[in-house]
Design goal:
Length: 257
């Protein structure tokens, strides 16, 4: 009897430790990469929820995307591109019927390229649609952010910048409700790719970079390479928004609404 009690206690302890480790892994995945950006109006994107004007919203929330008065249902993806955003997009894709999946509309200043790659893979695997729009609504609240571009102009709207631009370009289906605001600048790929692939991509020629992209995202390598080339011309501390001609020439939009 004593032996059985001892064995049961040991087994219970092992289960408890396993539960704690699982909890810590999930917490780390969701809550890392927090960035405070109070001066931009989005206070603290933390992966699961962000606080805006005193209200909390999920990083991925059901809402509407509009061009003028024409609106469709959509998943509005807000905040920093990080592991939390990737987690929420994955969870949404897993629970939703792919045949009735609304587009994922992004409004983001960017984030880490590692997470943008994960999101591209998720979007491609589930054949999900990325979208940009003139206006986003969640519970009747309109969302927008602002920045100063490379020419000193103030740009306000549903901006998709930096790592967010890669997500949009990497999706198989790319819808735009009105004029898309896609901002690019030089992204520091080196540290991430050195850790993952054992080489510094910034030291590669563009042909080598494209070969690497073809292994990562064959269907979107041409677009991603073009975004990288344009980004290299803009200092990391600046931001330049793609022109209508660039968007058309790169075939960034597959459907206009």
């Amino acid at each position: 009897m004593t032996f059985l009690l001892k064995t049961f206690s040991q087994f219970t302890f092992i289960l408890f430790i396993a539960f704690i480790l699982k909890f810590l892994d999930t917490y780390y995945q969701i809550h890392t990469d927090t960035l405070s950006v109070e001066k931009y109006g989005i206070v603290s994107p933390v992966g699961v929820q962000i606080k805006i004007n005193g209200n909390y919203f999920d990083t991925v929330s059901k809402g509407k995307v509009c061009n003028g008065n024409d609106c469709d249902e959509a998943w509005i993806v807000i905040g920093e591109v990080n592991s939390g955003m990737a987690h929420m997009i994955r969870r949404t894709l897993e629970i939703m019927d792919s045949n009735a999946l609304a587009p994922f509309c992004f409004i983001s200043r960017g984030g880490d390229i590692d997470s943008s790659e994960k999101i591209i893979q998720l979007m491609q695997q589930h054949d999900a649609t990325a979208c940009l729009g003139e206006r986003y609504y969640i519970d009747e609240q309109v969302f927008s952010i602002g920045t100063i571009d490379i020419d000193g102009n103030q740009v306000i709207g549903t901006l998709c910048m930096s790592a967010c631009a890669y997500i949009y370009a990497g999706a198989n289906h790319r819808v735009s409700y009105g004029k898309p605001l896609i901002g690019v600048h030089k992204i520091e790929f080196g540290s991430f790719y050195h850790w993952r692939y054992g080489t510094e991509l910034d030291s590669y020629e563009e042909s080598s970079f494209q070969q690497t992209l073809q292994k990562l995202h064959p269907s979107s390598s041409k677009r991603l390479t073009a975004i990288k080339q344009l980004s290299n011309k803009v200092d990391h501390n600046d931001i330049r928004f793609l022109t209508a001609n660039e968007i058309e020439n790169l075939e960034l939009v597959t459907e206009w609404r």
